[in-house]
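Quick one before lunch.
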Amino acid sequence: MPESVARTVARERRPAPGAPPTAREPVNMWVEDEAIGPDRVRAFVAILRTRGCYWADVKGCSMCGYAKDTLGRSASPDELGQQLDRILARYRDEPYVKFYTSGSFLDDREVDPASRERIAKAFAGRARRLLFETLPEFAIEPAVGAVRDSFGGDVEVAMGLESTQPEVLGRLINKGEPPSEYLAAADRLRTYGVHPKAYLLLKPPYLTEVESVADVVRSIEVAQSRFEAISVNPVHIQNGTVVEWLFRRGRYRPPWLWSLVDAMRAGAAARGSTRLVTFPTAGGLPRGPHNCGRCDTTVLAALEEASLAQRFDGLDALDCECRAGYARRRDLEGVGIEA
Ligand code: SF4
Ligand SMILES: [Zn+2]
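Model of the iron/sulfur cluster complex:
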C-alpha cells in the first residue's frame, strides 16, 4: 500500500474534538447473553466516549476503526460522570458488566483514576463480574488494584493479544508492543487477583484462510496457560482502516465462518482449562465473517452455544453445500506464491 494511503487512513480515523453534549453521551449500551463459569447470565455492555486509544494516533492497527467512536479529546471527570449516570439509568442489575472505551480503560488520558473508581463502585454489590479492556502497558498494580478494591467482585481484564507470532502482531496487525508484553501482563494480572482474558484475531490482512486458522490455533496453544479466557474475534470491516482499503479493492475477504469453526474445533483441543469463546461481530454480513448466506445463521448459533456451554462437539456436525467450495478456494489461496 502506498505510504500516502497509510497516512490518509490514519488521519481519517479521528473525529474533530466533540462538543459538551456529545461528551455526555456514551457511545452505545446493550444487553447480551454470556456465562460466568457454568451459569448462563445476562451481560450489560457500555461503551464510554473517551479520547480513545493513544496507539490509534501514533500508528493504529490495521483492522481497528474504533477511533471513529471517540470524543477527539479527553472527557473531563464531570463528563464521564454524566455518561455514567446515563449508563446507570439503563442498568438492570445484570450480573456481568462490560465497560469498553474504544481504547484502554486504564489509560489515565481516557478515564482518570477517580472516574475509574467511581465507575467500579457504582456496580459494587450489584454485579458479580466487571470486565474492561486495556493495552498491556497500563496493566499495573496501582490502576488495577484500585478498580479491584472499589468493585469488590470478580474483575476481568481483556487485552487484544491478537496473535502470539511477533511478525503477525507487529507487521500485519501493527500493534505497538510484542506478544511477550501481553503474556507478561497476563502473569502480572493474575498476581493482582484479577482474571486475564485475551482476544485473538482471525484473519489479519495478508494472511490466507489456512494461515489465519493455523495462527489462531498456535496462539491458543501458547497463550492458554497464561489467560483464563480466550476470545477468538474474526475480522469485520471497520470504516477508515487499512483492512477496509484492501476490501474495497477486492484484496481482502472477511473470514469464512468455516474457518472460525475449524479454529474453534482445533482450539478446543488445545485450550487446556482455559475458557474458549467466540461471539463474532457482524456475523453473516458482507463486511463480517460469513459463509454462503444460507447456513450462516445455523453456524453462528452453534458457535454461540459452544461458547456459552464450553462444549464444542456441536460444531462437528455442521455442514452446507458451500463447505466444499470453501475448501477448494481455501486450498488454492496462496498457491504459486513462494513462502
Ligand atoms: S486495536 Fe486496540 S491497540 Fe490497536 S488501535 Fe484499536 S484500540 Fe488501539
Ligand atoms: Zn453455506
